[in-house]
Write the structure tokens for this entry.
Amino acid sequence: MSTPADASAYSKDHPFPALVTENRLLNKPGSAKETRHIVVNLAGSGLHYKAGDSLGVFAENRPAEVAEILERLGASGDEPVSPAMLRLPSPLPLREVLATRLALAAPTRKMVETLSAKATDPDEKAKLSGLLTPESKDLLAGYLEQREFADLLAEFPSAKPGPQELVDHMRKLMPRLYSIASSPKVHPNEIHLTVAVVRYETNHRDRVGVCTTFLADRVQVGTTPTPVFVSHSHFGLPDDGAKDVIMVGPGTGIAPFRAFVQDRIASGATGRNWVFFGDQHRATDFLYEEDWKEWLAKGQIARLDTAFSRDQLTKVYVQDKMREHAAELWSWIKGGASFYVCGDAKRMAKDVDTALLDVIAQQGGLDAPAATEYVKQLKKEKRYQRDVY
């Protein structure tokens, strides 16, 4: 069977072992954040992407966490295991499965039940039984939220599950998707990512985002093969380059809009570009500041509105900037502009959606139901698109 010229042998089920060629910090000294610009080399993969797509990355767990679990189990790591959810053709060594195939976080009630059945120490058994009573449902949920598998093995050392028993309680380590921050028209053989590195503490232990710290700390530039695949998205630019585009991307939500602007410049699109960006401090958190300022100076973006929430007493966000420029925003939308949002789904995207409705109602002289209908129509025409997570 012949393969189309633009198809690649690599996919989610058969990821490409890419090399990272650049890993640099985007925040300046003094920032409370750690955001990294990661460049992934696609040369030889046959993979293609468009502005708006995402890159899937298969990470590995921290070696120290794997070592701790093995130590708590009293295992060598060579024990053959075959976790049911992985559907492996044959068993793999425990160490490999813990390092690359399973999530070491988010234990469930079932794990507590198993430990309760196996505990030989009376105090441990009593504590576990107490967590499993019907009236302790909320207590158990809060308890598990603060813990990973290593914590449970440390707290209940007398309840030693066997290697196979442990892995059967674990979830699959899923690939993480990152919005691509580059255009293939400018960078056909590489993909840029904007990665917010996650580090925090629960239960008096340091925790990390598995994939963000894998890319930031454990992947050696130029040498560590990193399994990746392209995830094609509904999120994309209008086919007509003469159309105006409004992009709202605070924090790492700015990633696809860097790709959009690169793409529009490279294709000679004549429509105007309006970018809204927000973060904590202008001095330390203005991601890709040089790019935006250069494009603004050259007229390649018509407007750049920024909201740095912690630079003044009253916090200012991107949705506040939208309201501030309501009349012009409405003029662009009424004139056929497409509106895009990328970033945090929980709060920011909802706040931006509310602001958009308010702007349309106020400036368009519409009541709430009519404004809602207008936004529905924008979505139907693919003129209102969201890439939220």
Summary: Residues 16-59+175-231 form a domain with the Elongation Factor Tu (Ef-tu); domain 3 fold (CATH 2.40.30.10). The chain has three domains: 16-59+175-231, 63-167, 245-388. The longest strand covers residues 16-25. The CA atoms of residues 51 and 260 lie 6 Å apart.
